[in-house]
């Protein structure tokens, strides 16, 4: 029984990581209205930035978060200028292919400049363990789960109870209409994109601390998981994307327990495809935007 | 359509340009006093996941070539190495092998790093009748694929049984062990051999899990292994060993750890810090601080590569010498076939130890037991079972 | 851009005038090429170009002609190659019989992938194909009794054609050449038929074509199956060419590689993927010395292409692929009348 619960906790923590990535992702896609494949690279850039700051300024976690957020914010500006701004009125597949090209660009440049090897990220956070019977959870895992819940609630508040959030939602629903009521669509879209990317940067940093390694090639796989989790949330809803992430994490881990880790992605994608077949809009009841 | 024909012409011109370059090197070598040049192709993953080892190949082989050439060359011929990046991708490796085979100046190929790439190249070198000498391929099925396939790493069905019998059973005296391995051709082969040998040695594998390349989260796997209550854990991989070690300790599990695969990798200690204290592993070769020429070699490598060598570049180094010896045995008539015959026949002792190929084209190695003490690798003397 | 359009127009005019002559000349050149240059390296590159031209062409049928976005080519390729390898090594089936079998099996897999997503918008299909590609690869990695697992399948037997053993690059060059020609020929007939027109109308505006009575779901599914069929056939020929396959041959990177050929060369035309294959493979060889910067160069090319010519170098300029939306074109036409 405890074994099962331990695995459940593992799944929950893995799912919390996916949820963290998915939150940033759904903010980006929700506001900009275009699917992106670059989120993985954006996250890893944030982690790399913090890594180098840690090398020179010591390992201060708060500093790391700020640096990761800013670095990914800046990257978000680049992504926006290159992949989105020009294609607001074009067929969707063009910006999609452009983001694929951009992610290839960043991935290979990162490998050239940072090297393709794993770079250790040790001892950033002092890990304490808490035991409840035979179950165990670490302070890092608690931090991640708390951050996910906190961010989901905070973003929910911003989106539904502030003027800025209203602007974001209107841009995501119908850009022409938002333009007509006087909203600076381009600026709001860029802001929303950068906020999502910044959140992605924080997620990337936490992930690297959790796995204790940062590597230039990590982006692709992480981006795919963020993408899948977000799809379960209809691509735009933050709360359900987080929920999607948690579900994928749990399903994956339970699947691995029964078979082996080689099947991890089979469970993740299999689950995604199953949900899509039976409920194409994911967990949400109706979609807010046309993607 | 017109573009197609234009392109083809450009391609032909380009490939001819490649060929033209070779003559310049020949003349330069003759000016230096050599009889001529002999080219050896070097294949390795200079980029990608195993880049550390590919770069190690490049530097290790160049060190050997430099020494041989400084001493007058192989029978008066200057050795010129042509390194190419196979990225660890069998397709890329095969394409480059085909390029090498086509270039009649190239007399032998050293590489590739993974058994998968080497096995993909086997039919090509067999057709072209050129030697493929891999410093590190350890899949027992590789060397038998062709008369022209050789490897000096030592077979998986030598190291894994050694590990099971001598390290786990005799040295550590354990009965129950858990296994975690990478689901790749190397890992599956190592696991298979270990399983058989463990059964023979009376060691029970209470739990085993595997994972694919690029896996980052081992927590559920570790939980599964922990639940089976083993006495020790064996990790079979090269790239992710550090990760596994770190995550095992991060989960608060202080079980004795052993690993098969990375050898005495300095990078491993760097990536794990204090977590790898007490780690036990097997290695066919060790840079013994007591032996000055090994230390000199290690320092020279470190200067050139900016990282410390493992056994892999040392094997690459020995490979060049092996080819050089084969060239010497050929006398004046150096052909690809001649190199192959003499390579199979010769006996040589390199920095990694004695090398004599068996009928299939690989060798059986003797292994040492090493342990990490105070952040350094220490050979356990007096446990040299290699004689058995 | 005007220069490109002019060159293209001029090339098309010349081509139209002397269509038969040029085609025959080109065919003769391709057939006699191995006699001009017997270097196995050149033959190897030509084999790659031809093989990828067919793969890109098949992907183009899906992405370019029906407007669906398939990102998981590698998965179909994996199915085709493994089918041949398994049938040839375990059952001892003749290579020539494997070809249609591999094609049909891959087509059925294509149907399985496409069917759940027919009613969803394009992006969901893209995700599902991506997921499918990874699932295919992981199944190949793990289904050890069938696929050899991590060890792959080796010693795939070479095919024979009336006594001639097809073993070296030169023989495979002819095989790939014939395959490419058959593919282009057959697909040309299909595109010019009612089926092709239905596909193109779905691409331009699915809702409008449905309102005209086109059963979009059926045509989209068939389109997917058709593309998958040819990818499977190429996979079938690929397996004995490399003699050894394992799951690492069919990663997502391979899929991006083929996709980039379609993007760069052109979507929605026949010559597009061929040009894409030539460009990408040629650049791969020429840019080898610069190592990883080569991939950076490709990525930049893709971005530039999307910015200035989304339909690719030789793509269908008068379609949605070029970034025009039907509405805008109708508006323009309306303006002209004023």
Describe the structure.
The complex is a heterotrimer of chains A (291), B (388) and C (338). With 291 residues, chain A is mainly α. Chain A has eleven helices and four strands; from the N terminus they run H-H-H-H-E-E-E-H-H-H-H-E-H-H-H. Chain A has a two-stranded antiparallel sheet. In chain A, strands 2-3 form a two-stranded antiparallel ribbon. With 388 residues, chain B is of the alpha/beta class. Chain B folds into two domains: 18-154 and 293-356, Response regulator (Rossmann fold, 3-Layer(aba) Sandwich), CATH 3.40.50.2300; 156-283 and 367-387, Response regulator (Rossmann fold, 3-Layer(aba) Sandwich), CATH 3.40.50.2300. Chain B is 47% helix and 20% strand. Chain B has helices spanning 2-32, 51-70, 90-102, 115-128, 156-171, 185-201, 219-227, 241-250, 266-272, 292-305, 311-330, 336-345; strands at 36-44, 77-85, 106-110, 131-134, 149-151, 176-182, 204-211, 232-236, 257-260, 280-283, 347-350, 353-356, 368-373, 376-379. In chain B, the strands form three sheets. Chain B has a seven-stranded mixed β-sheet, with helices on both faces. Chain B has a five-stranded parallel β-sheet with strand order 2-1-3-4-5, sandwiched between helices. Residues 1-5 and 17-22 of chain B have low confidence and may be disordered. In chain C, 53% of the residues are buried. Chain C is mainly alpha-helical and 338 residues long. The mean pLDDT of chain C is 85. Chain C has a domain at 39-249. Chain C has 15 helices and two strands. At the A-C interface, helix 4, helix 9 and helix 11 of A face helix 6, helix 12 and helix 14 of C.
